Amino acid sequence: MSTVDDRVTPAAARAARRLPRTAGFWLLGTTLLAFMGAASAPSPLYVVYQHRWGFSATTLTAVFAVYALALLVALLTVGGLSDFLGRRPVLIAALLAETAAMVVFLTAGDVGTLLAARVVQGLATGAATGAISAGLVDLQPGARLGSLVNSVAPSLGLAAGALGSGALVQYAPAPTTLVFAVLTGVFVVLAAVMAFIPDLVTPRPGALASLRPRAAVPAPARAAFLAVAPCLVATWALGGLYLSLGGSLAAGVLHIGNHLVGGLVVTALTGAGAVVSVLVRDRAPQRVMAAGSAALAAGTAVTLLALGTASTSLFFIGTAIAGCGFGGAFLGAFRSVAALAGTGQRAELFASVYVISYLAFSVPAVVAGIAVPSFGLRATATAYGAVVIALSLIAAVSETVGSRTGRPAAAPAPAAPAPAAPCPVGDRAAG
Asked: What's the pTM value of the predicted model, to 2 decimals?
């Protein structure tokens, strides 16, 4: 005869197998770090692929750009799916898809395979970041820790991925496969462990309806949105240049043959951005954006001077300064508009922010790739940087003037996600 204890045993057993909430929180943070590390891991390899297969700079930037565009598509469609199906199933599916992408990288023998791997990787990352951002808030041990991890982990992941990949390419055997073999193992383990993560979401109807892409700017936030648009374009366009052509600039302009140094190019930018995001997270967003935009312009100018004089040390100094501006400017811009939308409007506003940001992340890089054969790498980078400087100065002046003329100020808010991890879209359907 069954007892009450017998009847509840399966549910109790499942609950007992779940990780504690704090452990689940840090597992999600580690998973976000892994996704972002995998996103930047191919950057030091692009020069290797280019030499091995003989494709142009245009093709190189296209390989980079399809990742960003696929990620954007995933964010705008399945970014909020975990609000209906639960965090756990969406994350397991995304991790399996990321594992598949790493396997495709492992077997890549031509540009077509490389493009396919980047598309799958972009879709997997877009699906995962929405669920991870929401899960970090669900399980956070402290009131602000989820926002902080959402802000810092992506930049740290990008830095670690580029640096680790550069080291393996330079000093380990099988440069185009070893890094992806390691990442394949990491994602297999994460997919297995993710089955034990606590999931506070009760599945509910509406999953299919949530797949409809939505992006809008509510009326109260439109003036601020227009003011921060140049900043969004400048920060993400600079990030796109570094992650796509950073290795080529190190090799072709600075004549650095060491792939570890090529990885350090991305690390200097994103690592500095991560540090600044932590340091200024409690400051007034308008001031952070204005100061960040000015630092972005100054750092880019120093970097262009370094390219003109072929100075490696000056190049890294400029990159670090630009990275500080990169982190601060986007954080300030995001928070400036986020606080001006109501709860039911924020998700669509976030989607609009990331539509602009990811288009700026990918499209200018492709344009640069098209220009390189005609104008050369140095001239193309100089023109690209000049546009970034102009947009950054416009953003800095616009924000400073707007603050003085009484444009509505955003109230202090929790730290926003960093550029590389568009996490708030994960709350789209809930909004």
From this structure: 0.79
